[in-house]
């Protein structure tokens, strides 16, 4: 489902199971955070989250969201208006909108009044990040995730009905990887490409939905890191290009190049993979990150609805996400992001085997369904599950937890 408004959700108990979301929303105040504002949209305001008129009530209040990503992983998220350095940041959308992490404190005092404030001074990117956060914690989004279609389905199932299999990762376009391992502060370029026809437009609602799905996806990847040493810094750019849709072709590049290169030109970069690489390198420098990659979202016709270049630098997704649907963008994006960070596929029709040497530690693909005991265990590289096997953790180069 797409978000159609901002509202407060109630705690949902009992929790709905693996892959579901359990949200406990409450507003707290703390004398220890005098310069941190954390806000949430009032349920009685306009249905357009990017055009809300709000008012500051306090500089010592903030809202805590408990986000249960699966049975073993619970994180607390806070929408930060001003970062005073006391809360670790998970998602960075700019100086005025960040999503922070914090453990519950005994000193926090529950409050019942909704916080609000002006949003007119926010950049488009900041407003998208904030609206996405709000959408993720709405009853509608929660319900859609509970009813997620094709839960647990193998990415490569070739049944007579249902979605297409995911694509194998494409060969890397550069030897100098900006995504050698999934650790530290990582820049995420998100280029939302619309075309000249109504059917090719990613409107405001769709932009919020995409941002929310990516936010959820990367929050989940954070929960899988043994040392939880990940954070994400964003560059979100909606672009409208005036090129026709390519309806026939035999390669990924045939479909991708026309709209991608037109978007790169608008952004001041050369065409082709060099332009993509230059954009990502600039992103890494300007956002002061350890690593970087980018994702193109569009409604232009593609050779395949979702694919990534192994080891980077970028991935591409169609908004409709084929038969998997928009409410599975989060898991498909997590799968493709793992390809960016060197993880191989593990489902049978990918022709995987238990050999190879993947990631910074050169680990074989031991959870491949074609050779692992009993077909392997549940993993995001194998099926539509919020699960990650130990092989994938090593492929993407998670920092090892201390013994």
Commentary on this structure:
- The chain is of the alpha/beta class and 403 residues long.
- It folds into two domains: 23-146, no CATH class; 184-395, Collagenase (Catalytic Domain) (3-Layer(aba) Sandwich), CATH 3.40.390.
- It contains seven helices and eleven strands.
- It has helices at residues 124-136, 139-146, 204-224, 252-266, 272-286, 329-340, 390-395; strands at 23-29, 61-70, 73-80, 89-92, 98-101, 109-111, 184-194, 230-240, 291-298, 306-308, 314-318.
- It has an eleven-stranded mixed β-sheet, with helices on both faces.
- Strand 2 (61-70) and strand 3 (73-80) form a beta hairpin.
- Helix 3 (204-224) crosses helix 6 (329-340).
- The protein is globular and about 55 Å long.
- It starts with 22 loop residues before the first strand and ends in an 8-residue tail after the last helix.
Give a short synopsis of this structure.
The protein has 403 residues and is α/β, with parallel strands linked by helices. The chain has two domains: 23-146, no CATH class; 184-395, Collagenase (Catalytic Domain) (3-Layer(aba) Sandwich). The chain has seven helices and eleven strands.
């Amino acid at each position: 489902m797409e978000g159609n408004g901002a509202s407060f959700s109630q705690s949902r108990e009992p929790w709905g199971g693996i892959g579901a979301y359990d949200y406990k929303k409450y507003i707290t105040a703390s004398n220890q955070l005098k310069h941190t504002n954390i806000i949430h949209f009032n349920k009685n305001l306009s249905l357009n989250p990017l055009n809300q008129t709000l008012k500051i009530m306090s500089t010592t209040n903030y809202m805590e969201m408990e986000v249960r990503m699966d049975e073993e992983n619970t994180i607390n998220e806070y929408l930060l208006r001003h970062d005073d350095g006391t809360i670790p940041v998970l998602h960075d959308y700019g100086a005025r909108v960040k999503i922070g992490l914090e453990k519950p404190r005994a000193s926090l005092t529950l409050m019942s009044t909704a916080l609000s404030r002006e949003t007119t001074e926010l950049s488009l990117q900041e407003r998208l990040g904030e609206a996405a956060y709000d959408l993720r914690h709405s009853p509608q989004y929660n319900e859609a995730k509970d009813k997620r279609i094709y839960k647990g389905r193998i990415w490569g199932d070739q049944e007579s009905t249902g979605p297409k299999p995911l694509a194998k990762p494409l060969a890397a376009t550069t030897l100098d990887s900006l995504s050698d391992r999934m650790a530290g502060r990582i820049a995420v370029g998100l280029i939302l490409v619309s075309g000249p026809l109504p059917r090719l437009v990613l409107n405001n609602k769709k932009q919020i939905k995409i941002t929310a799905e990516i936010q959820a996806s990367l929050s989940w990847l954070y929960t899988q890191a043994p040392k939880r040493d990940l954070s994400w810094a964003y560059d979100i750019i909606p672009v409208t290009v005036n090129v026709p849709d390519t309806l026939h072709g035999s390669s990924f590049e045939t479909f991708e190049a026309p709209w991608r290169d037109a978007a790169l030109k608008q952004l001041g970069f050369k065409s082709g993979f060099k332009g993509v690489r230059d954009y990502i390198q600039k992103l890494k420098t300007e956002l002061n990150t350890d690593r970087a990659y980018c994702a193109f979202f569009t409604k232009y016709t593609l050779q395949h609805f979702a694919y990534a270049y192994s080891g980077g630098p970028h991935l591409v997704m169609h908004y409709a996400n084929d038969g998997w649907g928009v409410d599975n963008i989060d898991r498909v994006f997590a799968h493709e992001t793992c390809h960016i960070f060197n993880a191989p596929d593990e489902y049978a029709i990918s022709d995987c085997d238990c050999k190879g040497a993947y990631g910074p530690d050169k680990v074989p693909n031991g959870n491949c369904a074609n050779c692992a005991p009993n077909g392997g265990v549940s993993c995001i590289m194998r099926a539509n599950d919020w699960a990650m096997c130990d092989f994938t953790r090593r492929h993407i180069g998670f920092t090892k937890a201390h013994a």
